[in-house]
Write a structure and sequence with these properties.
single chain, about 475 residues, Aldehyde Dehydrogenase, Chain A, domain 1, Aldehyde Dehydrogenase, Chain A, domain 2, 2 domains, 7-stranded mixed beta sheet, about 40% helix, globular
Length: about 475
């Protein structure tokens, strides 16, 4: 048997080999090696940063049509290859194939959106308070940006960082999560043929301790956009602020899904299942706290248990599967650990929570739902990042709102209700960056801002036109007659 194909870094317009490579393993089938991917050392990261720095002066002042054309070409190829790339995504991350294809389509549309943004750059031309003077307010590229992405959305999150960075004239050093380098490499290969000058985009793969640290601490990197864990994000913030680099963080969530007495029960159950368990619960916007008012609580618990019996867990590429595997052994152990913690704290396991045997060896776990839980349990406070959710019973809407806001996080929050009064009040008083009414807490559009409050996010929003807040700097020019 031949060795799996080796995939190299992309630095300064060339594919660069490494001294070490890491195997990319399919969590649905541990015998399936997707490929071997380069592991950068600090010197290679510095070479990539230097290449980006050298390319920046010309790229940041280049014509907007050339930028738009290159980004549109990337988006078109991603969309044309969505089934192929979706299969790769499902293999390496474990999303079901329909979800994976959907994520790839989203990535393609993101590039096309920002191809248009290149042509929609705007500013202000204002009179001064001084006679004979006018003022121009314009935006310019930030500089060299380091982009560090997580494993749960291996092509969509890279897309929503890379596309605006390039659209606004920045040069990129991109580090994907070590668990899922396959989609990142495929995206880099597409970008390498789209017409960007050498050094404008660079891919360096490897561990966060080596590659991430080198990016974050480099004085030649003007800004860092990071999506990942709270602990790592806070350390990145400290490092960037200490050297006055711009920083943007998307981190954890403990998102509430409120179910009120007047909710449509069938709709509430379906959106709760999708919020908590689809994508194996491995979404920062997933709802792991189901806050249910007393009048509907018992019916909701019973209906959820019934609905969960029909959820099919299995190989991500298998037709008819609802939920694929957990992404890795370490993540599976974490999920199982929290299931044990919930039991020991006195929560009642209503459904799931056990390993699932399939035709292939993988990390398969039946989604776990707990009832009879309280707000002070760890299962109610800490982010599991897996298919584990708990139901908390409350007296009424006011108690539900207070419970929803009783968290250090503030990314996404949902409410199921037929009351316009409660829906409007929740939208206004929920302490979350995104609010969903009669919709799952997970699932967002690519053309509008994404981000949270409190411990979930730091810095300006991602996606849509709001992305310019991070990737550009404002310049004010005064012109005398």
């Amino acid at each position: 048997m031949t060795d799996p194909k080796r995939h190299n870094h992309y630095i300064g317009g060339e594919w660069v080999a490494a001294t070490a490579y890491s195997a990319n393993i399919n969590p649905s089938d541990l015998s399936d090696v997707i490929g071997e991917y380069a592991q950068a050392d600090a010197a290679q990261v510095q070479t990539a940063i230097d290449a980006a720095r050298a390319a920046f002066p010309a790229w940041s002042t280049s014509g907007i049509q050339a930028r738009s054309d290159a980004l549109d070409k990337v988006g078109s190829e991603i969309l044309a290859r969505k089934e192929e790339l979706g299969t790769l995504l499902a293999r390496e991350e474990g999303k079901t194939l329909p979800e994976a294809i959907g994520e790839v389509s989203r990535a393609g549309n993101i590039f096309k959106f920002f191809a248009g943004e290149c042509l929609r750059l705007s500013g202000d031309y204002l009179p001064s308070v001084r006679p004979g003077v006018h003022v121009e307010v314009t935006r310019e590229a930030l500089g060299v940006v380091g982009l560090i992405t997580p494993w749960n959305f291996p092509i969509a999150i890279p897309a929503w960082k890379i596309a605006p960075a390039l659209a606004y004239g920045n040069c990129v050093v991109f580090k994907p999560a070590d668990l899922v380098p396959g989609c990142a490499w495929a995206l880099a290969e597409i970008i390498s043929r789209a017409g960007f000058p050498a050094g404008v985009f660079n891919l360096v793969m490897g561990s966060g301790r080596v590659v991430g640290d080198a990016i974050v601490h480099s004085p030649k990197v003007d800004g860092v956009s990071f999506t990942g864990s709270v602990g790592v994000g806070r350390q990145i913030a400290i490092s960037c602020v200490s050297r006055q680099a711009k920083v943007q963080l998307e981190m954890g969530g403990k998102n509430p899904q409120v179910i009120l007495d007047d909710a449509d029960l069938k709709q509430a159950v379906e959106l709760a299942v999708q919020s908590a368990f689809y994508s194996t619960g491995q979404r920062c916007t997933a709802s792991s706290r189901l806050i249910v008012t007393a009048g509907i609580h018992d019916k909701f618990v019973e209906a959820m248990a019934e609905r969960m019996r029909s959820i099919k867990v299995g190989h991500a590429l298998q037709a008819g599967i609802d939920i694929g595997p957990v992404v890795s052994r370490a993540q599976l152990d974490q999920d199982l650990g929290y299931i044990d913690i919930a039991r020991n704290e006195g929560a009642r396991l209503v459904a799931g929570g056990s390993l699932v045997t399939c035709d292939t060896e993988g990390y398969f776990l039946a989604p776990a739902l707990f009832a009879d839980s309280t707000a002070d349990m760890r299962i109610s406070r800490e982010e599991v990042f897996g298919p584990v959710a708990n139901i908390i019973k409350v007296a009424d809407y006011e108690a539900a709102l207070a419970m929803a806001n009783d968290t250090e996080f503030g990314l996404s929050a949902g409410i199921a209700t037929t009351s316009l009064k409660y829906a409007n009040h929740f939208k206004r008083h929920s302490q979350a960056g995104m609010v969903m009414v009669n919709l799952p807490t997970a699932g967002v559009d690519y053309h509008v801002p994404f981000g949270g409050r409190k411990g979930s996010s730091y810095g300006s929003r991602e996606q849509g036109r709001y992305a310019q807040e991070f990737y550009t700097v404002v310049k004010t020019s005064y012109i005398g007659s």
